[in-house]
Specification:
single chain; mainly alpha; 3 helices; about 70% helix; elongated
Length: about 70
């Protein structure tokens, strides 16, 4: 595998993880079954910290929720 193919595969994996993250947040918002959400988490190989960050980000999308202060 040459360097360009390797970089493309890395980019593809990153993009897939971003899309899965967005899908997880949307699934939580639409109250999909937890089993489905768990399957997405497993598919994206999200670790515990990443899962916590996803749920934290979800909470900030709720109505009447103040944006995070950095």
């Amino acid at each position: 595998m040459d360097i360009s193919e390797e970089r493309f595969n890395e980019w593809l994996e990153e993009r897939m993880k971003i899309e899965l993250k967005n899908l997880i947040i949307e699934s939580i918002q639409n109250e999909y079954p937890q089993k489905f959400i768990d399957t997405l988490i497993k598919k994206g190989n999200f670790n515990e910290d990443e899962v916590q960050e996803i749920y934290k980000e979800f909470r900030h999308t709720l109505p009447n929720q103040k944006p995070p202060i950095n």
